[in-house]
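Sharing a chain and its predicted structure for anyone who wants a worked example. Both blocks are below, sequence first, tokens second.
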Amino acid sequence: MIGSSKLCEAHTLPRCVRFSQPRLLKLSVRPSFRGGGLATELLSEACRFARSRGMKHLTLTCDTLNVASRRVIEKNGGVLVDTYPEEGRMTQRFHVAL
């Protein structure tokens, strides 16, 4: 497998009960395939899928030190909402309008 994503619809999955809005739980690309735009395309496809399910926006987060993830989110229309501490690190929260 080269990459994967996992979408959470707040109203359908038990793990998502703590989230008040749909969010992307995970997006990953195998290290040997990074840097070629696959993460950007994978997130784009996840957004298209979410849109097809009637979602209006997604919430995404990344560590403040993860510049590559931030770029992928921003390339897909992500807008920084806030930054907050989580598990000893600072996390950035973005919203992507679908």
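Comments welcome. The chain is about 25% helix and 40% strand.
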